[in-house]
Amino acid sequence: MTKLPVLFTTAGPIVTLTLNRPDKLNALNYETNDILLAHLDRIERDDSLRAVILTGTGRAFSAGGDIPEFAASIRSHPVRAARDFVRRGQALTTRIESFPKPVIAAVNGLAFGGGCEVTEAAHLALASPEARFAKPEVAIGIPPTFGGTQRLPRLVGRKRALELLLTGESIGARRALQLGLINGIVPAEALLAEADALARRILCHSPGAIARILSAVTRGQDLPVAEGLRIESDQFELVAADPDCLADLDRWLGRRRTQG
Fold first, then answer.
1. By the 8 A CB rule, do 104 and 43 touch?
2. Closest to 85 (Cα-Cα) out of 161, 149, 33
3. Which end is more exposed in the chain, N or C (fewer Cβ atoms within 10 Å of the end residue's Cβ)?
4. Are 129 and 188 in contact, with CB atoms under 8 Å apart?
5. For residue 62, what are the β-bridge partners?
6. Last residue of a domain, which of 203, 224, 246?
7. Has residue 167 been placed in a domain?
8. In Å, how far are 51, 203, 236 from 197, measured between CA atoms?
C-alpha cells in the first residue's frame, strides 16, 4: 500500500491533517500541496467538521518546498516553475489564511521555508520546545515563494522579518513566541492535546460568529482602519441575519436572568 503523504483523522468536529513524509522532513511537494487543498475543500463543505489542526510526523513539521521537484521545474522553464511551485504554494497558504474554520498549526519540529509560511498563514500556532523556524530560501538563491515576504513582515514587523529573510538563519520556539509567530510553547508529548483543547475552547461558540471573525480579520488586516470597519460591519450584518444569532442571544439573556 502506498503511504499517504497526508493523514486525515477526526476527533468529533476537529480534523487533524498530518504531513506524512518523514523521510523527506515532510517537504511540500506538488502532490502534498494538492492533497492538502482537496482536504480543505472537503472540510469546508462538511458542517460537522469545524476546526483543523495541522502537524507533521517525525522530527519536522515541514522543511519547506520539495527542492528537487522545484529545481526540475526551473530547469524546464521559469514560467512552469512559477505555475507549478509558486502559485501552488501561494494557493495553499492563502487557502489556509482565508479558511472559514479555525486552522491551528501544531509545530512539532522543523518549520523551514514553506513550513514556516504555513505556520504564518494558520490562524493560530502552538509549538514544541524543539521547534525551529527559518526562511532559508536566500541560501539557494531565491526569495520565499509561499507568501513569506508578505505575511512575515505583517506578523513580526518589517525589520525583524528582513533579518530572518536576508540571513536565512533559524530561530527557536522561544524567539518565535517573542516575535508573535506562534501563540504558545507546549511540551512535545502534549502538543496535539493542547491544540485540540484550544480548538474546543473556540468551538463552544457559534460557527457563524467564528467564521465572520476570521473573515473580518483576514480581509481587513492590510486595509486602512475605515475600510476594515466597513468589513466588520458587513460581517455583523451577515451574522445578525442568521436565526442562530438570536438563539444565542436568547440563551445568553436567559443565563443572565437565572444568575441575576
1. no
2. 33
3. N
4. yes
5. 111
6. 203
7. yes
8. 11, 10, 27
Q: What's the rounded Cα separation, in Å, for the pair 75 and 62?
A: 24
Pairing label, strands 132-134, 184-185: unpaired
Catalytic residue among 97, 117, 120, 232: 117
Give 72-100 pLDDT, tens digit per residue.
777 777 777 777 788 889 999 999 999 99
CA gap 112, 132 in Å, rounded: 8
Is 117 a known active-site residue? Answer: yes
Cell output for 116: 514556516
| Final residue of a structural domain among 203, 219, 243 | 203
Catalytic residue of the set 31, 120, 130, 137: 137
Below-70 pLDDT ranges, the chain: 1-2, 246, 250, 252-260
So what's the pLDDT on residue 131? Answer: 98
Known catalytic residue at 69: no
Q: Which domain holds residue 247?
A: 207-259
Q: What cell was used for 131?
A: 521547534
Taking a C-beta distance cutoff of 8 angstroms, is the pair 224, 236 a contact?
A: no
Residue 258's pLDDT is 64
The pLDDT value given to residue 1 = 41
Closest CA to 199 of 66, 5, 16: 16
Closest CA to 121 of 85, 150, 144: 150
Please state, in angstroms and rounded to a whole number, the distance separating the CA atoms of residues 30 and 170.
Answer: 25
